[in-house]
Amino acid sequence: MSSRFLQFSSFDFQGNYNRMEYRLNNEIGLLNNWNLELGVFHKPRILETTTLRGGPIWRFSEENAFSFDLKTDERKRLSGFGRILYSQAKENNFSMKNFQMGLIYQPMDALTIALSPEYSVRPNKTQYVTKTEFNGSPRYIMASIDNNTLSASLRVNYTINPNLTVQYYGQPFVSNGNYNNFKYVTNSAASRLTDRYHIYDNNQIEFSDLSNTYQVDEDQDGIFDYSFGKPDFSVIQFRSNLVLRWEYIPGSELFLVWSQGISSSGDYNESLTENLNDYWLAQKPSNTFLIKATYRFLL
Question: Is the pLDDT of residue 18 over 80?
Fold first, then answer.
């Protein structure tokens, strides 16, 4: 068993103290060559310069997290790993639940097959939406988001001989996001979460089905001051690569590559499996073929 304690701090190029993190990692090696690892994290200071997309620095509430990892004996023909990560910020600013697992199968020395699915849930009360203007001043719009993401990666490596190999990589990816409780930034670096923004009340914001936009009457004078598009989304992607590598003479190689991709997006759908049917299976993939050759000159 081993334990490590680490502390991180980060500053930007202007000297601003943006982040502090404490981390405690504990690793246990079992007699059957399995490994367990437990991590505990505490982030008392989280200031981000990119959250508002060029706007003022943004403060996230303190974050506490833990992770649990399990790895089986990698010497076996069949091995695997699993990971659970849970994070929760104070004032319920944001949270994350992430689940990963993987199986690695090596039926022969020349062939390795690895499959790694992953699922995450990431609600956030302060997700950036867009920037607009009100009375000549910038308005940074944020919202609460419910975000779910499912992905999986498949890798196949086959060594025909030391000079000829075939590699395949494929990853389907599906994610959706539903926005609500729209708000604008008031004091981006305030200590309390509720002091960082103002939530629009029902008299300030309404949704227009005709234009598919949210219209805002911030000063409630009966005239809309600005509007922004509905940010809800469902995204589907699939990426794959098939590579044949031939070292035709020592140090010189020929690569034949086939890349295939599918990308689609649409209105928010709570069901990730329905997104796969509606947006992925109906799409035609794009295919790219590449040839690359290298030659080593002996000088």
Answer: yes
